[in-house]
């Protein structure tokens, strides 16, 4: 039988203190494990300050005049693909940030062509359903995806009523440095935020103007002196799926 050596009182107190310290650390660790990762990341996302240059005094938006948008014209689509490094649909699973659609009035039979992209909602469903905070809205109203936080769950694709989000299925090569993309993440029109932050127009707007169509106006919806605000005040405009009360940043004339 091994001899028993009683622990001195001082050593016993020290051992107990060490055990309490270890258990406290373990409890903190377990708290981190037990908390849903999405909750922690959402908290982090909400604490993240808005991007430099984004101000809540501004709300960027687009006004699209379907009367000026020509059937068969894809200038805006091609400009978007070139600006953001998209293949233009050469791959079945490739992303499409803007697409041309045809709509038809069931009563009159009138058809119209118009571009459809992320509508940059004031109340974006994609942000509401994102479990990690990867989908977020900047202070100036631009809805974006943080690819470092996106886990590829595709909840946002299902939540978007405009089918405006895509999922990157394939490895990417030849990316543009100011438009980072990543396989396994969701993405959508970002209003060419890299250009906007430089004081430039989105690529689709510039291409439409260069072609002489001038069907798309971009600007600050909050500024009464801006061209977009003046037109909205002058002409009747509509929002796609306006019954959802999402307060979209993209408005249309003539639909």
Concise structural overview:
30% of the residues lie in helices and 15% in strands. It is α+β, with helices and mostly antiparallel strands and 255 residues long.
Percentage of helical residues?
25-40%
Biggest sheet details: 3 strands, mixed
User: What is the global morphology?
Assistant: globular
Question: What is the radius of gyration computed over CA atoms, rounded to a whole number of angstroms?
Answer: 26 Å
CATH topology-level name: Alpha-Beta Plaits
Strand percentage lies at 15-25%
Element-by-element helix/strand order = HHEHEEHEEHEEHHEHE
- Uncertain segments are 12-51
- Overall pLDDT metric: 82
- In CATH, the architecture is 2-Layer Sandwich
Largest beta sheet: strand ordering: 8-1-9
How is the secondary structure organized here?
Elements: H1 9-34, H2 37-47, E1 60-65, H3 75-84, E2 98-104, E3 111-117, H4 125-129, E4 135-137, E5 143-145, H5 155-159, E6 166-167, E7 186-187, H6 193-196, H7 203-210, E8 216-220, H8 227-234, E9 250-253
Parallel strand pairs: 1-9
Antiparallel strand pairs: 1-8, 2-3, 4-5, 6-7
Helix pairs in contact: 3-7
